[in-house]
């Protein structure tokens, strides 16, 4: 009789765990914004602000989301994680504001980059607000510096064209996820 009780108890726990897992997966799916072609800026490169002592805008090369996809596919036969250290400028419509709720997986993705670039270890914690986008079956985890978010909210309205000055850090081929750190923004 004890064994039947233990067996039924394990089944109940297993069912509850599966329901929680499904709920978490559904919850995570809702916070990802699906980008369409109309959400992306396809025109010529817009001028960046002039360089200042605090930020070198000119060191960030323009790239499109398709450019990120090409970079991710550059080594077709290798499965794993690709590490980049590429400064880029992305121009897109702001569809949502970043939220400050990185989960442990997202923090791990962020912190992995700092393992390969030791100068980032002391400051990686300031990247703590995320915006999750999906474009052509690729996921983009865009993580903002915490001090940028209040300025972004006050200066840029949803639907406005914004340039994000970013560091393309990693691409995980197993989950098709690009991790991008935002260092600055500019409203166009």
Give a written overview of the molecule.
- This protein has 188 residues and is of the alpha/beta class.
- Helix content is 31%, strand content 31%.
- It has helices at 2-30, 65-73, 104-116, 148-155, and strands spanning 32-34, 61-62, 81-93, 127-135, 138-145, 161-172, 177-187.
- A seven-stranded mixed sheet has the order 1-4-5-7-6-3-2, with helices on both faces.
- Strand 4 (127-135) and strand 5 form a beta hairpin.
Strand content: 25-35%
User: Distance between termini?
Assistant: 71 Å
Could you list the spans in which at least 5 consecutive residues all have pLDDT below 50?
Answer: 2-29
Please write the string of helix (H) and strand (E) elements. HEEHEHEEHEE
Secondary structure tally, helices: 4
User: Count of DSSP E strands?
Assistant: 7
Main beta-sheet strand count, sense and barrel state: 7 strands, mixed
Structural class: alpha/beta
Estimated helix fraction: 25-40%
Spatial order of the strands forming the largest sheet:
1-4-5-7-6-3-2
Mean pLDDT: 83
Shape: globular
Radius of gyration equals 20 Å
């Amino acid at each position: 009789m004890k064994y039947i009780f233990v067996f039924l108890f394990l089944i109940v726990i297993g069912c509850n765990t599966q329901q929680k897992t499904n709920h978490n997966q559904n919850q995570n799916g809702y916070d990802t914004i699906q980008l369409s072609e109309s959400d992306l800026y396809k025109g010529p490169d817009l001028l960046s602000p002039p360089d200042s002592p605090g930020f070198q805008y000119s060191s960030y090369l323009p790239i499109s989301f398709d450019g990120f996809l090409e970079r991710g596919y550059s080594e077709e036969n290798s499965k794993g994680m690709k590490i980049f250290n590429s400064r880029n400028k992305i121009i897109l419509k702001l569809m949502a504001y970043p939220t400050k709720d990185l989960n442990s997986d997202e923090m791990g993705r962020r912190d992995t980059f700092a393992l390969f670039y030791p100068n980032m270890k002391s400051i990686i914690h300031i990247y703590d607000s995320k915006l999750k986008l999906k474009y052509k079956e690729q996921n983009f985890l865009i993580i903002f510096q915490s001090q940028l978010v209040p300025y972004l909210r006050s200066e840029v309205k949803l639907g406005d064209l914004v340039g994000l000055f970013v560091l393309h850090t990693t691409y995980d081929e197993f989950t098709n996820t690009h991790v991008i750190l935002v260092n600055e923004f500019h409203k166009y």
